[in-house]
Amino acid sequence: MSITELAEKVGGTIVVDKPGAAIRFAYASDLLSDVMGHCGEESVLVTIQNHLNTIAVCTLDGIEAIVICHDRPVPDDMKAAAEREEVAIVTTSLSQFEASVALASLPPSRK
Amino acid sequence: MAPSEIVSRAASAGMDGIALTDHQSARNTPAMAECARRAGLKCLFGLEVQTAEEVHTLAIFDTPEQALAMTDWVYDALPKRVNDPDTFGDQPVVTADNDIVEMEWRILAMGCRRNIPETSEKTRELGGLYIAAHIDRPNYSVVSGLGAVPEGFFDAIELSRTADETAWLPRSGGLAAVRSSDAHNLEDVARVWTEADISEFSVSALKQAFASRATRLSPRLTSF
Questions:
Q1: Number of structural domains, chain A?
Q2: Which of A66, B196, B210, B221 has its CA 20 to 30 Å from the CA of residue A80?
Q3: Strand bridging mode B194-195 / B216-217
Q4: Strand A13-16's sheet: what is its strand order?
Q5: Please, what is the average pLDDT of chain B?
Q6: In this model, does residue A90 exceed pLDDT 90?
Q7: Please, which pLDDT band fits residue B87 given cuts at 50, 70 and 90?
Q8: CATH at residue A46
Q9: Per-residue pLDDT tens for A56-74?
Q10: In terms of CA atoms, which chain A residue is nearest residue B78?
């Protein structure tokens, strides 16, 4: 799944794009320690954690994209880190549950 | 930000005492103790424990030894992963003269598996103060993570340098407040502070001041 398709599925806005990204798995969590423990590569992370450390965790674990729920704003430092580290960000008005349902065609990400 | 620089900046700003609380580690507190001793500045020693709830909490002690015992307890519950300096930055352990002794290999940027009740109990067992950090911040605070300050675990709450106390004190769970710089770089050291009439700069004296809500916050800053 491309970032464009991802944004379409969650009815969201692409804040940071990643052309050529191929998302194969999905994971939803708001605890970054849980994300680190369970979310693997080639994944999209559904979360409300709209801050810099989320990008760091994605970088460490090869997570391709983040869907930020409830239209939480993306701070400038988070956006800059995402661009630098090539992690896509999509924001959506959906809740984490609704966004996960919208992405249910993707298999769960595992480590 | 070397301990000697922190001490000299705090002293020149007129602080009577400071506390060092690095994230998940107190390994630089022995160097801080020596720098503070040389400068005649009073210092407390602790760490910012990021709990299993991903909430930032401050465990603060009278001595580096207590803070290091707390650090061992936290380290036992950290994810067993090696820090990536490119992502999270270097984690040097230094001497009072700012020589690097070693680079901490553990990943200190993440939460540990200890929850708030356990961390509160351990802090008290080791003789420390337990403070809910920057409760006004949108991330990593008890309020952002848990909705409110939980009852029975904390000695005080901390407000960040921009927090409006008229808005936040009613959400303190009835606890005394401190305002502190939460300085991540030298320029931010001692920009805000807390005043209290205490006989000595110690955990027990601060506990008493907190119990009687006898703290006064410095003015807040308008931008972070």
A1: 1
A2: B221
A3: antiparallel
A4: A13-16, A88-91, A65-68, A43-47, A25-28
A5: 96
A6: yes
A7: confident
A8: 3.40.1390.20
A9: 999 999 999 999 999 999 9
A10: A33
Residue B222 inside a domain? The answer is no
Question: What is the residue range of B104's domain?
Answer: 3-217
Work out the mean pLDDT of chain A and round it to a whole number: 96
- For residue B224, being part of any structural domain is answered with no
Q: Which of B110, B140, B146, B224 to mutate to test the interface with A (most CBs of A within 10 A)?
A: B110
Instruction: Classify residue A65: in a domain, yes or no.
Output: yes
Is B224 a residue whose pLDDT tops 90? no
Its ipTM equals 0.75
What would the two tokens of residue A68 be?
């930020």
**Residue B21 backbone phi and psi in degrees, to 5:** -135, 80
- List the alpha helices (DSSP H) in B85-128: 85-88, 116-125
Q: Residue B49 belongs to a domain with what CATH number? A: 3.20.20
Taking an 8 Å cut-off on Cβ atoms, the answer to whether A37 and B79 are in contact is yes
B96 in a domain, yes or no?
yes
Q: How many Å lie between the alpha carbon of B205 and the closest alpha carbon of chain A?
A: 36
Q: Does A59 touch chain B (CB under 8 A)?
A: yes
CA distance B156 to B174: 9
Please count the structural domains in chain B. Answer: 1
